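Record type: monomer structure entry
Structure origin: computed from sequence
Chain ID: A
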Amino acid sequence: MFKTCIFCNRNLGANESVENFPVGKRLAFDQERGRLWVICDHCRRWNLSPLHQRWEAIEECERQFYDSSKSFSTDNIGLAELDEGLQLVRVGRPKRREFAAWRYGSQFLQRRIKSALSVAAAMVAGVAMTVAGANLLPVIIGIRNSRVVARVRDRDGQRLSITYNDMRKAEIHRGDSPEGWSLKLFYRPGERRILFWSQGKGRRKDTLLEGQTALRAAGQVLPQVNEWGASDAQVRDAVTLIEESRSPERLFERVAIEQAKKRADGALFADPKLLRKVDANTRLALEMAAHEDSERRALEGELAVLEEAWREAEEIASIADRLLIPQAVEDTLEKLKRQFRHDGART
């Protein structure tokens, strides 16, 4: 097993994460084509691994990529960092449904459990105090409603403190901006600290956010609106909505149009412009899309560099792997391709 870069001759390092390929601190793999590279930390060139050392290692890399808690994918390439420090570069279209189910499933389940425990604890405390002769349940509810649950920035960079009650009033509007939608938020201008939590301070105000500012704010507010998490089935439905819309902006615009139409159609829908009145699966899709867009923008520079390096390395790998195929087989394949094209043209 090689241990030095074939381009700069420096040591490639080692890892303890991939048992079948303990070389390198950054591995790139393409499961569909059966490629495995070690990316040199010094010259950043991609070293193609020998054929006999790839297959089990590629399967291991694929599994660990989706098990990682720190990963992000675009249409052609993904990047993940394992807890042990090894970085994995996955080449190829991500399995979005499996990826989303892995990434959000446990997160939403934990959120549901946390919300249930929080409500149960508040009820138990309120009942206990009532039995003891002190009806503090309204006080507990008041503290819950006034605590700060999100902090966002407006287009001028000013920090807005949003309480639980303010969050419930957040609205999505069909707008005249290029994005076609806007987000109306209610907030407090300040905060005050009380024991282990912060409460909003000052008179409630509102602001209308558009574009990337609105998208970033939605990523902060929606986890609070979706406080009860989701089931695996809901996550799959949300992923379908994201795939149909193709981009976060289009998804938000689509929802804004649909909610505006509901409002115009009649009184069956109570305040459909409120984010919390949007269908639960759609709200989950909005949250996931907003977060993925933020991560994409943060990583798009590095992923673009990785994709460019991959395209160059793939050309070399294609040539290298074909050197092991006998010329007679190559000639037969080429003959079959020509025959297929000829038959296809006649039909």
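Annotation 1: Residues 280-322 form the longest helix (43 residues).
Annotation 2: The longest strand covers residues 181-187.
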